[in-house]
Amino acid sequence: MRCPNCKNPNDSDATICQWCGARCAPEPPPSSNPEGKTLRQLVKEGNSHLATRLYIEETGATVREAENHIKKIKKQLEDRRNDKKVLLGILGLMLFAILLWLIFPE
Ligand SMILES: [Zn+2]
Description:
Layout: H1 39-44, H2 48-59, H3 63-103
Helix pairs in contact: 2-3
Bound molecules: zinc ion.
The site of zinc ion has 8 residues, from loops.
């Protein structure tokens, strides 16, 4: 890493600059959300803990509020998944009916 004081290169794990002796700041920790994902995406991926933390970071909400918020997102996602299942079921039935009608025309 580069020394913040003299700008000379140092080993990446150096804490003190080998050139000027200044304290080298450690690399900033990787962002907890490097890809800028939405809460919904994180929850979808099963990353509710991270989503909860991000919500707290972004809104200053309490842990309890954040957990409730994430729970709501989870529920919305589940509802949507169930809707899809129902829709697929109906489509399947319709296809089946059409097939029957093709095979056994009146
Ligand atoms: Zn230096």
